[in-house]
Each structure stands twice: as structure tokens, then as C-alpha cells.
Amino acid sequence: MSSTPPIPILLVTADQLQTDFKAERNWIEAMGFKAEPGTFCLLPGAQHSLSKVLVGRPETLDMWLLGLLSQSLPANRYELISDLTPQEATALTLGWRLGQYTFSRYKQQKPGAIAELVTLETADIDYIEAAIEATCLARDLINTPANDMGPDDLEEAARTLSVTYDADLTVIKGKQLEAENYPMIYAVGQASVSAPRLLDLRWGDVDAPKVTLVGKGVCFDSGGLNLKPGKSMAMMKKRYGGRGSCFRARYHDHEAPIASLPARPDSGG
Fold it and tell me: How far apart are CA 105 and CA 141, in angstroms?
């Protein structure tokens, strides 16, 4: 797949369809493509090949504009051919890469080849790789079923993170929570066979400004009383996302629209 030139992806408006693609107009009209934001059209080439991909360009570019393409397009290499600022190139590439995510831990057959986007030279590659690694970690933690992601498992994930990135991890566990003035954590989780705990992960220059993120996590076990209606219990899984997202804060500030995409931090506190 890497030996062939990448297939161009062009961000186009409705006006550009009328002026820049006259030779392909009949095909584009037959496909019903009107360059609406987020829609795309495949243009055929010689010998049943794919020559170009047209993507509707919104007035303001959004990081998720290409998010679905990475799993919708044929498994080839692609390259953005558009006038983009470094910030836009970084954001669009990040959205594409985030769209490639799959959770295959329990699948016997692993996912096959998928569409790949050539990273533009103007994009911040280090930022993209850090953001992808962080976000995929949070997604994996959230998507892991409760029977494989209890307090012990989450602590192990935090320990791995602390070792990998030279961070300090402090664990306050069980009845020690009461002594350290965290009575509600202990009260909620004391009936579980796996003791509740507070994970305090610290990283960065000790002299840097301090930022504290608090993520609430709910692990499920087979004990206790279910006092919630069914629909509310279905939403409880989302409460895991608070702590999973805190794990990814080691890498970057947040997922933001292009207009406010933060610069990659070189140091942290």
C-alpha cells in the first residue's frame, strides 16, 4: 500500500464544484454530492482506480471533519491537498486518527487494514501522537467491561502510567480513606470485595504552576443494592469517563475546536 502515491483528498465548497470539476460534473451530480460539510464523493480514475476524494468544506473547519473517513474509505494512503494553516493541519489529522480507534481487546479476529492519512509537514506530529496515545488509553479504560476494570485494575493502569512517564503515584485505600478525610469514597465502596481507593498521580516540574484534575470513577461489582431505575443504570457507565479522562491529561490539555486548539506543552506541572 505504501509503494503507490497517496490519493488526494480535497476540501471543496459548492462553488468550487461548479468551477474546478467540470470534467467530473456528471459523475458528481449522479452521486448526489453537493459539497455539504462532512459529506464526501469518490472520483474514479483509470482502470477502476480511485483518483480523488472530495470532502465538503464547512465555513469553519472542525477537527472531526475527517473523523469518519478513516473507516469509510478504502484501505489506501491519502493526502490532504488543501490550503491549511499548521493549526488546521494538526487538528484535521488528529480528527482522522481519532476516527481510526477500535476496541478489539476481546475480538478473536483483529481489525484489518484501514485508510491511512499522510501527515502533513506543517502539522505538529509530536502533539498528534501524544494526543492519540492519551485519548486511546482513556477510551480503552472506559470501554473495558466492569468485570475487568475494578479498582485494582484501575490502580494497575495508573501504576503503569506513572512508571512510563516518571510520575509519582500515591494510593489511599480502604479504611485509610476515612483517616485521610475521604469518608464518602469509603462509604460508597466499602461493601465491595475490592477496596475503594483514591489515586493521586503527580507529574511535572515541582516549580511549575500546579493544576489539579479530579476524575470521579464508578466501578461495578456484584454486591450492593440497585436503587436506580434501568435507564439511569445504563448511564452509569459514562461516570467512568471522568477518571479515564484524567489519565489522558498527562499528554495534552483538551480536545478543542480548531479555533482554540492548544499548543503542545513542552513541560507540565
Answer: 11
